[in-house]
Amino acid sequence: MKIKPKFTISTKKINGWITFIILLIAAVISVFPFFWMVVGSTNTSADVTMGTMSFGSALKVNWNNLVEKASLLRIFWNTAKTTLIYTFLSVLICSMAGYGFEKYRSKSRNLLYNVFLISMMIPFASQMIPLFKMMNKLKLMDTHTAIILPTLAMPFLIFFFRQSFISFPTEIIEASRIDGANELRIFFSLVLPPMRATFAAGFIYSFMKQWNNYLWPLIVLQSNEQKTFTLLLSSLSSAYFVDYGQLMLAIVLATLPILIVFLTMQKHFVTGIVGSSK
Amino acid sequence: MKKRTKKLINYNAYGWFFVSFALILFCVFTIYPAFESIWLSFQTFDEGAFRFSGLDNFKRMLGDKLFFKSMANTFLFLIIQVPIMKVLALSFATMLNKPKLKARGILRTAIFLPCVTSLVAYSVLFKMMFSMNGIVNNVLMSLDVLSESFQWLQNPIWAKIIIIIALTWRWTGYDVIFFLAAMQNIPAETYEAAQIDGSNSWNTFWKITLPQLKPIILLTMIMSTNGTLQLFDEPMNITMGGPANSTLTMSQYIYNQSFVYSPNLGYSATLSYVIVFIMIILAIIQFRITGDDAK
Predict the structure, then answer these.
(1) Does CATH number 1.10.3720.10 belong to domain B58-294?
(2) Per-residue pLDDT for B140 more than 70?
(3) Interface of B with A in 253-272 (CB under 8 A)
């Protein structure tokens, strides 16, 4: 009895170290490409391919090359504008729908909710051609409206919000109804504030989805004036002579905003998802 | 009971109001296209107009070797990559869930990080790493593992392996987020009780953690299956579907049929419905395997 606890503690310690080392390796592999792209953006194309792992002095040159090739400010603005409008609208629309499905239950709405869930199975490929025809007809080709509109009602986000609203006590809503509060006000000023984490998670999900959107913009956006970051990266990397330093800088610029959004809201993101999976 | 129904009727209009925006958008941009696609799949586009052609598209598909090749490629990615990723993600999540882990927060953030990168950005990074004059070749040559640079992306097998590595790098952290979230909902007392009963961590994982995670595993399985069957950004930007179509996926083939080769929208619609059917069948199988308690 006296020896046993000592023994368990030491195996525990060893296990702890093994776990730590495995996770450390995974973490290094996860972070390495980020490190590499930041270092790469300061090196010349030749140095990047040589595997240089230290900061170089070619950042200015890469920047100038990139600015010469693409109107960066324009592309940044296009991406930021479409992403922010999309994120705001989709979070609003999907959270309202999730709230409607959860707190105003009825047979017909339950059925409708199931249709939304099943529609998650429909691949984008089967919608893309009719959508393409539709955008042509509506004269929305090569506009940002065309990349914002079609996927605003995201079944996954509606599902996520509905799951999260389950944990919001219905008694509180009913109490404020008795106090005479209007339904919309209840949603926006009573339900929304304490569910910040959920909304933050929804925000990050939606933001990432649109910032990184590729296939649909590739189909819809044709002129250089309307292009977004993903299209720029894709065209830079498929050029005949790829300037690696310049490409690295473009990747850094495309990744930085989303990295900032994620790191600042990470805590909420995880708590938000915890809330929805209860 | 009666009172309650009455109340619901009063608020019914508000219920519809809250879901109305999503409902309208959903009907216009999801339901309508999905049905138009079915209609299109029975038509052929020639001489500037659509013409009803019955099952022609379907017959054409049965003889389309390239489509079946793209299907085989997609399934290969699904069968090999998804299980590897789930096992990795489950192990990482279990390890990260240990309260006494050193530097837990930093490790967790690092493992989440890949899932913020855009699919195009990381694909381009992986393409650079494995290109002819890329960092992998140069490092391997300087270590004398290779005597001359190897064309990773020109080799049908390696091209597939690299896409699998890339997918695993990008998506494992995403699954870890979901698994960790679900694990945090398992009460600590359950684990304490298991420990008192003398259960080791291996048994605890199989008897307690895994059964509790069933619903979230099912959810992420369905998400990964959907994602893999629609795989497009990665093969498009890493290999362009090459070499010799060895990494061509179904979505890419449909894209090519619609926008790269001479546009054949009716035929593409037929092909896209093949994906719909495969997805539905796989979802039913996954629900069956995870059993009834996964609801």
Answers:
(1) yes
(2) yes
(3) 254-255, 258-259, 265, 268-269, 271-272
